Amino acid sequence: MAAAWFKRTQKGIQTPTEEKKDVPKGLWYKSPTGKIVDAEQLESNFYVSPEDGYHVRIGSNEYFQILFDDNKYKELDKGLSAKDPLSFKDTKKYTDRLKTAQDKTGLKDAVRTAVGKSKGKELVIACMDFKFIGGSMGSVVGEKIARAADYAIQNNLPFMIISKSGGARMQEAALSLMQLAKTSVKLAQLAEAKLPYISLCTDPTTGGTTASFAMLGDINISEPGALIGFAGPRVVKDTTGKDLPKDFQTSEFLKEHGFLDFITKRSELKNKVNLYLDLIQNQPVRA
Q1: Which residues span the domain enclosing 52?
Q2: Backbone dihedral angles phi then psi of residue 33, each to the nearest 5 degrees
Q3: Which of 205, 260, 210, 259 is closest to 227 using CA atoms?
Q4: Is residue 2 part of a domain?
Q5: pLDDT per residue over 33-88, tens digit each?
Q6: DSSP string, 166-213
Q7: Which of 5, 7, 124, 262 is the most buried (most CB within 10 A)?
């Protein structure tokens, strides 16, 4: 009799526990300022909270949908995936970490590259995905960006990189750091070919990514409120021993100090990017 309290039928509950359905995930989103947004409304608003303007982190799928006409594009070098030349192991083997990330995200690595039309004209885009090991930059990221730059040069097309990264991938050690130089050289070749390169810094853009391609754009732009820097605020404060300015390392702070050309809302991104391309290439402005 002492255990009778859990007999659900006595309380009029007829559904067996194993048949109960949880509320589907993703129906609602709560922004850091506490605003509750319907998931469908969030998607239709470019994944920006309508009440407070907070730009939710999104990945390559969403950026391609925003920037390419009718979400039509050809993905470049889709099959590239990382190796483990150092046989690296921390709390788990690097090979296991890669497989877990690939299974969880459906991605091969932390960047996807594609070519498609944006407002009627072709554009090559490399977009990083933070959900793949924190958007860390390893050999595959560097190689895919380099190949995308080559594709842009060979086809006389403008190039855009959307950065979202925690920095270089420690599991590849010096090999990941070599990607800073590799991608920088390719962007220099793009400049020699007189092709425009747009760098979009999103939240977060840090570490070796910031120290290389993310800050080498002919025009460097960002979304509102993005964290952009080399080392994190805590590390900088501990190193300098000084209190940091308000909004330190936000996109607004960087624009004020001359590191960014402008900040754009995600809803205006496609128009702003194409306006710049039309002006730099001396083309009629596209409606």
Answers
A1: 26-56
A2: -90, 5
A3: 205
A4: no
A5: 788 889 889 999 999 999 899 999 999 999 999 999 999 999 999 999 999 999 99
A6: --B-GGGHHHHHHHHHHHHHHHHHHHHTT--EEEEEEEEE-HHHHTTG
A7: 124
Residues 51 and 154 in one domain: no
Would you mind telling me the total number of residues written for the chain in this entry?
287
- Total-model pTM: 0.88
31 and 115 in a common domain? no
The answer on 51 and 181 residing in a single domain is: no
Structural domain tally of the chain?
Answer: 2
Q: Do 80 and 128 reside in the same domain of the chain?
A: yes
Could you give phi then psi for residue 97, rounded to 5 degrees? -65, -40
Tell whether 76 is covered by a domain: yes
Residues 51 and 106 in one domain: no
Helices H, strands E: what count in the chain? 9, 9
Helical spans, DSSP H, in the chain: 39-44, 60-67, 94-105, 139-154, 173-192, 207-210, 233-240, 251-256, 269-280
DSSP state for residue 77 in the 8-state scheme:
S
The C-alpha atoms of residue 180 and residue 176 are separated, in whole angstroms, by: 8
**Residues 186-218: pLDDT tens digits?**
999 999 999 999 999 999 999 999 999 999 999
Is beta strand 219-222 parallel, antiparallel or unpaired with respect to 197-205?
parallel
Residue 104 has which token pair?
């969880």
Q: Quick one: pLDDT at residue 26? A: 61
